[in-house]
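Whether sequence alone determines local backbone shape is best considered at the level of individual chains. In the encoding step, the backbone of a single protein was reduced to a row of integers, each denoting a local shape. For completeness, the protein is quoted in full, as a sequence line and a line of structure tokens.
***
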Amino acid sequence: MPKITFIDSAGTARDVEAEQGSTVMESAVRNGIPEIEAECGGACACATCHVYVEPDWLEATGKAEPMEEDMLDFAFEVKPNSRLSCQIKVRPNLDGLTVRTPSRQG
């Protein structure tokens, strides 16, 4: 199973094993990762699973689709590496992925 590291706004890192085919958001929720609220349950209808993808992982995670970009307008402190974790599918090539969470969600 791919490993994902979540680093919260205070700098605490948490490693989780993520099921292939799930999303980064689902992995966060299953493992009780703080600062991921996931209010819409992964429907890309809110911005409460906002993460910052570490620069080394931007190519592997891909770019946000237009619908995700629209939802990111509601996120807190959007940066060029912002993504909604519900839109990042866990695949073998994401083993070691590191994302950071903002101090609050949109």
The chain has a mean pLDDT of 97. Strands lie at 3-7, 13-17, 50-53, 82-84, 97-100. The chain has one domain: 3-100. The radius of gyration is 12 Å.
